[in-house]
Amino acid sequence: QEQAAVTLTVYDITGQIIRTLVESRVMSPGHHKNVWDGLDNSGAKVGNGVYFYQLQAGDFSLMKKMTLLE
Length: 70
Fold this sequence. Notes:
The structure is a single chain. By secondary structure, this protein is mainly β. Helix content is 0%, strand content 53%. The protein has no helices and four strands. A four-stranded antiparallel beta sheet has the order 2-1-3-4, with no helix packed on it. It starts with a strand and ends with a strand. The relative contact order is 0.31.
């Protein structure tokens, strides 16, 4: 395994980008943790609901659903 550029993005239900948590950061293989604070890219609080996150690392891409409840 080798290092890869990693991007982690949060989208709303309509597919609009809410927050980019990690952008093209070169990371080594292994476990990494990133916590979304419920804010959008402008620093505004977003509402409770369903969101999606997409993880891209090199040629790998994964999108999952999550629910924000505060």
